[in-house]
Amino acid sequence: MPLFALVDGNSFYASCERAFRPDLIGRSIVVLSNNDGCVVARSAEAKALGIKGFVPFFEIREMCERHGVTVFSSNYALYGDMSRRMMQVIGSWGIEQEVYSVDESFITLDGIADLKDYATRLRADVLQRVGIPTCVGIGPTKTLAKLANHVGKKFPKAAGVFSWDWLTPEWRDKLMARIEVGDVWGVGRRIAEKLGTMGIHTALDLQRADPRDIKRRFNVVVERTVAELNGISCLALEDVAPNRQQIIASRSFAELVGDVDTLASAISHHACRAAEKLRQQQSEARMVGASVRTNPFRERDAQYTGWIVVPLIHPSADSTVIAHAALAGLHAIYREGISYKKAGVVLTEIGPQGLEQRDLFAPLPDPRRAKVMAVMDRVNAEYGTGCLAGAGVGGLDGFQLLCGQPLPCFFCAHGVLISCSFSANGLLMLCS
Fold first, then answer.
1. What predicted TM-score, i.e. pTM, was given to this entire model?
2. Which residues does residue 257 pair with via DSSP β-bridges, in sequence order?
3. 3-state secondary structure of 105
4. Which of 62, 78, 257, 307 has the most CB atoms in a 10 Å sphere around its CB?
């Protein structure tokens, strides 16, 4: 019988910010959405103050100032990089791994003798190597592992680690009876409300429900949830997460932007990030969307939302090709005299690499470009996301080093990489 563990980062976005600000340990932190409009993450200290999630920031601004809450604008590039690092560490502790979300990962722990000691050392390893506190829930099914994670997080006595096997059947029932049915994985608000009309209010109630009646009233997914709550594993680990059919890269500006050059730099950056995600899942996109918008909360300003989709001649995952298309879209939707708050890039019509039918009358992409992209991804994977990036407006056919540190040359044993640019033959990398 498999044994699952769900490991997730506590208050992940807030913990990512705190990892680089040790002075904020023990202090309240709030992270806001892209446009700083609402709360998307809170530290445990902020939750203790009564700050709710997904509320408009203006409603809690005074409370944050009164209690000295540190407020951050969201930084999804940072969170994505921290997530990648955390998942690598967690994966080294499991037999198999499924990355479920940016801060959650399922692993299997079959054959581990002392689970509590193992999970405790896992948490300590992630905290030491990444700086993110985690919680570990263990169970014979994925649903029970996720519910155990909920227990480990909500009940202080669990100290961040909990397994259903540590309780007698009587105490398991008592604990299940204290968990609302809406906290069970896969039970949304509407399903919880309908279950409530059937007298099912807790996880224990759902565990004891008739699976056939549940399937008749709902669907096979909820029926499987009942089975999983009873220790019958219906959900195996997904070895490979399904490829995304849409990739979005966008972010709000700290200050309003009016000039097209600054917008173009942001669009170029977002295009490169989106293209990198495409290559990670070995896909290509046929459509590139570009968008800009003003701040909807500044009613005194002129409001405008620009959106356009630019088709590519050939599906591509090349950063330069996608950036050129995104910039062409930007220039088509840009309006002078307007202050912009946000810009972004969206890739659609995504498919596997090399399987799209090519245009017989258009020149084929240079096959060497894939090698150039591979070198760039290798540099960024080794030295941090954004270390090697598109050179920006007026230089999209080149790259610049943004990490501020010398990098060893990949092609000789003693050189230090000082610049990268495209030449007629591909990528020119200069070392000293």
1. 0.63
2. 340
3. strand
4. 257
